[in-house]
């Protein structure tokens, strides 16, 4: 078991342990986060594991209701939030109630956003069930929903009371789903930890087999790095932007593919793109890019685009990036594995060249 402290305001802890869901009910009773609990999940997780968790919580004597919504990014909107909020009102939820977000990133974003605005804010707990959510979206307090005009345009910074990570649940997921989270783990190595990067290089086979010890290690190290970053920059005023490594072009690839390209795979290719741009800007040697490509390949992640995306669309999305300055994003590049630099002056022609090298047309 590992405990990671997130020193935001308020501070909270991340507990990481295989099989911890079996003890969750007693822990919630001991900590007393709410008089009543509302377990929020999506339709897939409800069928796969949430009903079992609900039964365990009720058997322990916890007053708990379950609310669900259709699985998928399409549900991440205000209509879903309002529907869930109305069901909570009808069930008698008050300011002493607490929300339990049980699912992947979409569930955490919706449930966290709802918790932040329901009766001006109630307690919530995160129980992420995908590797991507465990190492990324469940840590840091970002919540939000989409608008037709773009993703995460409505949202809040609102910290959970606690995050419970049970990596045993990952065995229920398809391998491709696991890989989406591994892309984020590689990112943490690239931006902040040569040690983590080397560990991934040495243990990729065991990680792909979901061996408990290496799995716990990489989750804990990823959470530790993100916790350190968000404790220094809770509301993304500066340092937190290093977490965008691989995401600037990755998000553009996702958008240009009409979201057919999974997030982790887009980020993997986005990291290769960022490394190649770093090379062309004279920051790193080709050897570092090759190490990144080799590691991604060993984890079953792509280093080139599987879809032939129009480079003009990719550039259009980059210009409209919500973090852009003067209609062009600040790129997070690397000087070395574990050392980043912000570059607001990457030439568009260079980005176009790299995107075409990676499969854009």
Automatic annotation (TrEMBL):
It catalyses: 7-phospho-2-dehydro-3-deoxy-D-arabino-heptonate = 3-dehydroquinate + phosphate. Its cofactor is Co(2+); Zn(2+); NAD(+). One of its GO terms (biological process) is aromatic amino acid family biosynthetic process. Binds 1 divalent metal cation per subunit. Can use either Co(2+) or Zn(2+). Its main location: cytoplasm. GO terms for cellular component: cytoplasm. Residues 181-324 form the 3-dehydroquinate synthase C-terminal domain. The keyword Metal-binding applies. NAD(+) binds at residues 105-109, 129-130, 142, 151. HAMAP family: DHQ_synthase (MF_00110). This is 3-dehydroquinate synthase. It comes from Thermosulfuriphilus ammonigenes. The gene is aroB.
């Amino acid at each position: 078991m590992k405990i990671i402290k997130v020193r935001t305001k308020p501070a909270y802890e991340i507990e990481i342990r295989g099989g911890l869901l079996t003890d969750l009910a007693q822990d919630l009773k001991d900590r007393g986060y709410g008089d009543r609990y509302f377990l929020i999940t999506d339709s897939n997780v409800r069928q796969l594991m949430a009903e079992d968790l609900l039964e365990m919580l009720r058997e322990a004597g916890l007053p708990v209701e379950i609310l669900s919504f259709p699985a998928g990014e399409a549900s991440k909107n205000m209509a879903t939030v309002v529907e869930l909020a109305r069901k909570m009102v009808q069930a008698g939820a008050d300011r002493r109630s607490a929300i339990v977000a049980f699912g992947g990133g979409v569930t955490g974003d919706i449930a966290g956003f709802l918790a932040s605005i329901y009766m001006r804010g109630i307690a919530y707990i995160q129980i992420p069930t995908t590797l991507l959510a465990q190492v990324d979206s469940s840590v840091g307090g970002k919540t939000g929903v989409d608008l037709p005009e773009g993703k995460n345009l409505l949202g809040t910074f609102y910290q959970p009371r606690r995050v419970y990570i049970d990596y045993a649940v990952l065995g229920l997921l398809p391998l491709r789903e696991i890989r989406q989270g591994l892309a984020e783990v590689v990112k943490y190595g690239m931006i902040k930890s040569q040690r983590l990067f080397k560990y991934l290089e040495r243990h990729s086979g065991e990680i792909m087999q979901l061996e408990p010890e290496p799995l716990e290690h990489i989750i804990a190290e990823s959470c530790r790095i993100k916790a350190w970053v968000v404790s220094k920059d809770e509301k993304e005023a500066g340092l937190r932007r290093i977490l965008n490594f691989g995401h600037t072009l990755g998000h553009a690839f996702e958008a240009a593919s009409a979201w057919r390209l999974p997030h982790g795979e887009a980020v993997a290719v986005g990291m290769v793109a960022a490394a190649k741009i770093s090379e062309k800007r004279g920051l790193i040697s080709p050897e570092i890019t090759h190490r990144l490509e080799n590691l991604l390949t060993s984890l079953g992640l792509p280093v080139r685009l599987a879809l032939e995306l129009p480079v003009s669309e990719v550039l259009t999305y980059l210009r409209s990036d919500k973090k852009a300055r003067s209609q062009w994003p600040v790129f997070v590049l690397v000087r070395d594995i574990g050392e980043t630099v912000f570059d607001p002056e990457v030439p568009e022609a260079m980005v176009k060249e790299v995107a075409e090298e990676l499969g854009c047309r």
